[in-house]
Amino acid sequence: MAQWGHGDRVAQDAFAEGLARARRNVRALAATMAGGAPPVARPVPHPALGLRSRPKPPGEPRFCTSPRQARDHAERLAKTIGITRIGMVGELGDIGGVQIAQAARPDGRWSSTYGSGKGLTEDGPYVGSVMEELEKWTQERWVPRADDLVEGSYRELGDDAVDPAGLALPYDSGYTPELPLTWMRCPDLLTGRTVLVPLDLLRLERGRGDNCFSPRGARKVIATNGLGSGFSLEEALLHGLCEYLERHAQRLAEVVLMNPAVRGRRRSGSWTPTPLRAGRARRRSGCAGPGTWSGSSTSRRRSRSPRSW
């Protein structure tokens, strides 16, 4: 963000908030440009989350509690959620003194699962690996309250609902705007109002008519992206938001560095994607084009372009 002229933290926070608000308001603009009536906003205040400042102890850069207290909590939680082994694996490679911990939980809902943590001391990665497993363990057992659920289609609920088409649905999802869904009331952190989020994207178990079910994959496709844990509500929320920022930045880098149809070049210190000629891109990628057959007669493989980048 510094390359875009947002060097200090205040400017970065203002830019991020403005971008989030713009993305939320784009639906009304798109409807107007298409000649239709913009959706009518019906703000519904959400009960206050009670967020407050959680300063970290002096000299502690990571948790809102001391490393010793965090370690004590992690050891107790590890027993509660079924972690059977925590290994310090940082010494397996030369990574400049960074400590790495790996927590093993063999009784995951679908299979054995592992959580990793990193830090400069032993306590940091130990706690991080346990807390990562705690996130997944909690989602596996989470059951929403009946009072928080709403039934209806996106077409019926309108602006109160988050558009599922803009969320992480599988490319072969059966979702349509007219399809009846179960929604959960959630707070919008920017506006403080209640919005409706599809329940299918919040729970790990597959539900009836699940919009995250992929017929081609024969399974529900859902990620833990955005899950966050912490020793306070504020800390857990911050960790979840930071994970989204990390994954978003990673995806942007993949678009520029790994997509054979674009190349990057430096312009005034910024990275600008530039389209390649189709023929050159095809030669580099070994593809005859999106959705066409490629390869020799003895090895015919379907090559598809991603649905979106």
Write the layout of secondary structure elements.
Layout (H helix, E strand, L loop, with lengths): L8 H25 L33 H15 L3 E4 L10 E7 L7 E7 L3 H19 L7 E4 L1 H4 L23 E7 L6 E5 L14 E2 L4 E2 L12 H26 L3 E6 L2 E6 L2 H8 L6 E3 L6 E3 L6
Antiparallel strand pairs: 1-2, 2-3, 4-5, 5-6, 7-8, 9-10, 11-12
Helix pairs in contact: 2-3
Task: Looking at this protein, list some descriptive labels.
Herpes Virus-1; 3-stranded antiparallel β-sheet; YcaO domain-containing protein; alpha+beta; single chain; YcaO-like_dom; globular; 6 helices
Number of strands: 12
Low-confidence parts: 264-269, 273-309
Compute the number of helices: 6
Spatial shape: globular
Distance between the termini: 20 Å
Category by helix and strand content: alpha+beta
For the largest beta-sheet, the strand count, sense and barrel status come to:
3 strands, antiparallel
Instruction: Report the radius of gyration as a whole number of Å.
Output: 23 Å
Instruction: Report the top-level CATH class of one domain.
Output: Alpha Beta
- Element-by-element helix/strand order: HHEEEHEHEEEEHEEHEE
How much helical structure, as a percent, in the residues? Answer: 25-40%
| CATH topology term of one domain | Herpes Virus-1
Strand content: 15-25%
- Kindly report the spatial arrangement of strands forming the biggest sheet: 1-2-3
Average pLDDT score:
77
CATH architecture descriptor text of one domain: 2-Layer Sandwich
